[in-house]
Design brief:
The protein is α+β, with helices and mostly antiparallel strands and about 425 residues long. Helix content is about 55%, strand content about 15%. Helix 1 (about 5-20) crosses helix 12, helix 2 packs across helix 12 and helix 12 (about 330-370) packs antiparallel against helix 13.
Length: about 425
């Protein structure tokens, strides 16, 4: 009776599976090492892609960021990404002087330092909603409500509203600093949620926006109403940093020099894109090192797989010879070992992929709170697909060498194995 190609292929897969199952303990250890290397490679690529996307899309349309003289990366991190602490404030009078420069189109002051249940508070002006851009020059959009108007009005980012379940009209209490210490709550100044911004995928989503006058009110003692003029409040005399837009990009270096040469106080101005490039160059060495380590782990796993199959070949000579004796062609024996190694690698890749997805999903909130990076475990990058394809291909190739050894054994050698 003639056996079809499909039937022979099915028989090969069944034999390969049963052969692997008979040595499941040793092969499961190999599969776990492949899973570990898959987990490292996929997670590293996921974090790298999401970090780069979060940082590169966080701000656009801003020509300069002005702050107290310190490190350029530090200024970028706390003014845009709400990470770290500023070294010093800058006076509003300095920003007023900057506005007078003929090349400056707009200035958006930012005052940081307070928080609400771990989320940073950004005190600013209405110009923030008008000029701030993210992604591809996308403006901020209100999903609900309106911008702040009264002293105790607050506009929430999309992530804050979703995570904390706040709605329009809810009362919220801000805290001094990060709110970690007891007694730092500004509970004598309850704020009212008047607006919720649409999601942007940037640090704006996890920020609470209030006015500069509100920041003054928070630190001025108890108040009895929400009328700023009745309270006699004035905008803050100091802020943390400022976003600056120019009338022409060609004037960026002249304005930067003018800020550095300002005699009123020590200021600095940075170009966000340039500092981001510097940051990626700094992180690039560490990223390449981690990737190299992951690749080495993958190589060791595949070599271990080859070693396990090769070590088992001598013990399987009679099994393979019997297969030849009952009509199995040498190519089929070769295919049997290749399928076996492919099954082990596929199992390891599947386990590693699931572990990577679960880890990114479970840690996404913590990473967002600590670094501002939005992890998107289900949004796969092209590089991740390449990693998977490379691992599977390498796994199948790793089975070719043992298969070649088995292919070259003569039938008589298999039936009378040397001891």
């Amino acid at each position: 009776m003639r056996v079809s190609h499909a039937g022979r292929a099915g028989t090969l897969w069944t034999l390969a599976w049963r052969s692997a199952w008979s040595r499941r303990f040793v092969l499961s250890l190999t599969a776990m090492s492949v899973a570990l290397s898959t987990f490292l490679l996929l997670t590293l690529e996921r974090v790298r892609a999401d970090t780069e996307a979060s940082f590169s899309q966080a701000v656009s349309g801003v020509d300069l960021i002005v702050g107290a003289r310190s490190g350029s990366l530090q200024l970028l991190l706390y003014s845009v990404f709400r990470v770290g602490q500023p070294s010093n404030n800058i006076r509003m009078s300095s920003l007023e002087a900057l506005k007078q420069h003929r090349s400056v189109a707009w200035v958006v002051p930012l005052s940081l330092g307070d928080s609400h249940r771990g989320y940073p508070v950004v005190a600013t002006t209405l110009a923030y909603f008008e000029h701030f851009r993210h992604g591809q020059q996308q403006a901020l959009v209100l999903a609900q409500g309106r911008r702040f108007d009264g002293v105790h009005d607050a506009v929430l980012g999309a992530e804050v509203a979703r995570r904390l379940g706040h709605r329009l009209g809810d009362a919220i209490v801000l805290s001094h600093g990060d709110g970690a210490l007891a007694g730092n709550d500004h509970d004598d100044h309850p704020f009212r949620v008047v607006g919720v911004l649409a999601a942007t995928g940037t640090p704006v989503d996890r920020s609470i926006h209030i006015s500069l006058e509100a920041m003054d009110a928070l630190h001025a003692g108890p108040v009895q109403g929400f009328d700023m003029q009745a309270l006699g409040l004035r905008p803050q005399r100091e802020v943390t940093a400022a976003l600056v837009g120019l009338t022409s990009r060609t004037a960026v270096f002249s304005v930067q020099r003018a800020v550095s040469a300002y005699r009123g106080e020590a200021l600095m101005a940075i170009l966000p894109g340039v500092v981001l490039d510097e940051m990626w160059q700094t992180l690039g060495a560490g990223e390449r090192t981690l990737r190299l380590v992951s690749l080495l782990v993958a190589a060791v796993s595949l070599l271990g797989l080859v070693a396990v199959i090769m070590a088992g070949l001598d013990a399987r000579r009679r099994e393979l010879a019997v297969l030849r004796a009952v009509g199995a062609a040498p190519a089929q024996v070769w295919s049997l070992l290749a399928i076996e190694s492919g099954l082990v690698v596929t199992l390891g890749v599947v386990l590693g992929t699931l572990a990577s997805l679960l880890a990114c999903w479970a840690l996404s909130d913590w990473v967002l709170m600590q670094t501002g990076v939005v992890l998107r475990p289900w949004d796969w990058a092209h590089a991740q697909w390449m990693v998977l394809a490379g691992l599977l291909m390498a796994g199948w190739l790793a089975g070719l060498w043992p298969g070649w050894r088995a292919y070259r054994w003569a039938l008589s050698d298999g039936l009378a194995p040397r001891v």
